[in-house]
Every structure is written in structure tokens, then in C-alpha cells.
Write a structure and sequence with these properties.
By secondary structure, the protein is of the alpha/beta class. The protein is 36% helix and 28% strand. The strands form three sheets. An eight-stranded mixed sheet has the order 2-3-1-4-7-9-8-10. The longest helix is centred in the first third of the chain and has 18 residues, at 25-42. It is elongated and about 70 Å long.
Length: 278
């Protein structure tokens, strides 16, 4: 699996819009879909699903996802709507790894993107820190909105409002709960079950939350992607070769989750491999 960027969109106050427009709402819904889909395709993305007033798209890069979302907002803003209606669409972007099922995707990253979109207001584009880190663009203004607890996401998400020339930039705070301090969350990886359990017990006694344990580098990456801990504690040498599996897993964790801390454990002096993280 490789990182992809997901975009979720939906029309704000669609029920009120339907009540106001009646039968004309069907045309508004279809025109909205056409405009968003056209900008998604123009930026090398693909519509994965379309249900009611919601659209789900995927991009191979964060930059193209950001460009598509901002372009779609411009198109929606410029469009003429019946009965002088105002059609405001909220959009959310998140970058991560997900599994495919037919033409679709599933996994925590998909749900994460949907929750980011739910935090946005109509006509607003919000992105997670993962998307901003992977797709910074010089002509896009990113405003740090702070960290928020998103429903079903195991750790706080730092959100950024994305704006560009010609688009509104004044919005209320996100539709989400601001994050509050919580016990540090830790994932453990060591091929010795006894050592892992001992470290886990000490951490839990100290007030830490252990989100999961792993005996190999690959299993650790799965635990990290699924639970999003604050810190990963990693043995440098793990199966199958007991050479540099841990250090490679640590480097991949820092690539996927730049803000996540990594603590390396080793019974050997391995400065050369450890320095690969810096």
C-alpha cells in the first residue's frame, strides 16, 4: 500500500435547501456533482463514491487533492443556482494508507478523511496535518486551526484551513471538539514477549496508555496505522533477520507520521543505523 489523499465533500444544510427549492433541488444536486467531479478529474483524481449530496474522491498525491478541492470551491462559488439559492459545500482532505476493495477503499484513513470534512463549514476546505505536510503549495494559505478530537479517530488531529485567491477565508471554529490533554499513548515493538509485557506493565503503572504490541517491524507499522499512538518504542533488531528491521520500521513511521515520537531500544551499540532517523 502507498499513501493516497482522500477528499470528502457534502452540501451544507442540504435538507433546508431541498425544502426551499423543491423539485429544483434535483438539478442543483446534479450540477454540484458535475462541477466537483470535473475539477477532480482535471487534477488527476477519481470519484470513488457519490451518495446523496456527498462525494468521495481519491488522489495519488496530496498536492493534486488540495488543488482539486480549491478549484471545486471556485467553480461552485461562480455557478448560478435557481431561485438565487446559495450552495455551500464543505470539503475535507486527509492523506494516509488504505486498502482497496474493488473500486473502493476502506481503512482508518478513509474514516479520518470523512471526519475532517465533517469539521468543515460550507465553502471551506480543511485538511489534516498529514495532507498539508505531504502537499505544501506556495500559492495556498494554510491556517493552523489547532488540534481536535474527531469521532472514531484514536488521537487528536491537527486541522488546517486551506484558502487561495478568490475564495472566502472567514469561518467559525471547526465543527469538532478541541482536544484536551490525555495520557500519552504508546505502541511497543520487541520480539521478546516477556520484555514487551514488562515494559507495557511499567508504562501503564506510570499512567501511559499502551495502544498495542508487535513482534516484527511489519506488525508494528500495522499497529501504528490502526491506533495512531503518540510514541512508538522500537527494538532496533527484530525478526526475521534480526539486523535492521526495527530501524527501517522506525524510519517508515517518521515518514508516515512526522509528529509521532520514536524511541529506539537495543542491547547493541548501533549508532550508524540509529542516525538514519535524523
Amino acid at each position: 500500500m502507498s499513501d493516497v489523499t482522500f477528499l470528502f465533500t457534502d452540501i451544507e444544510r442540504s435538507t433546508s435547501l431541498l425544502a426551499r427549492l423543491g423539485d429544483a433541488y434535483g438539478g442543483v444536486l446534479e450540477r454540484h456533482r458535475e462541477l466537483v467531479a470535473a475539477d477532480v478529474a482535471r487534477h488527476e483524481g477519481r470519484i470513488v463514491d457519490s451518495r446523496g449530496d456527498e462525494l468521495f474522491a481519491v488522489f495519488t498525491t496530496a498536492a493534486t487533492g488540495i488543488e482539486a478541492a480549491l478549484a471545486a470551491q471556485r467553480s461552485l462559488h461562480a455557478a448560478q443556482w435557481p431561485d438565487d439559492a446559495t450552495v455551500r459545500v464543505r470539503m475535507g482532505l486527509h492523506t494516509g494508507r488504505a486498502q482497496t476493495a474493488g473500486d473502493g477503499y476502506f481503512g482508518l484513513a478513509v474514516h479520518h478523511a470523512a471526519r475532517v470534512a465533517q469539521a468543515a463549514h460550507g465553502a471551506q476546505v480543511i485538511a489534516s496535518e498529514a495532507t498539508l505536510t505531504a502537499g505544501k503549495l506556495p500559492h495556498v494559505t494554510a491556517t493552523d486551526l489547532g488540534e481536535y478530537d474527531l469521532r472514531g479517530i484514536p488521537r487528536p488531529t491537527r486541522l488546517f484551513q486551506l484558502t487561495a485567491v478568490g475564495l472566502p477565508s472567514a469561518f467559525p471554529p471547526p465543527n469538532a471538539t478541541p482536544s484536551r490533554p490525555a495520557p500519552p499513548r504508546v505502541a511497543l515493538a520487541d520480539d521478546s514477549v516477556l520484555l514487551r509485557e514488562g515494559i507495557a506493565a511499567l508504562l501503564e503503572e506510570g499512567g501511559f496508555e499502551v495502544t498495542g504490541q508487535a513482534g516484527t517491524g511489519d506488525d508494528l507499522l500495522d499497529v501504528v496505522d490502526a491506533t495512531l499512538p503518540d510514541v512508538a518504542i522500537v527494538d532496533i533488531r527484530m525478526p526475521p533477520t534480526n539486523t535492521d528491521e526495527g530501524i527501517r520500521a522506525a524510519a517508515e513511521i517518521k515518514r508516515r507520521h512526522p509528529r509521532m515520537g520514536v524511541l529506539l531500544l537495543s542491547q547493541h551499540i548501533d549508532i550508524e543505523n540509529a542516525l538514519q532517523l535524523f
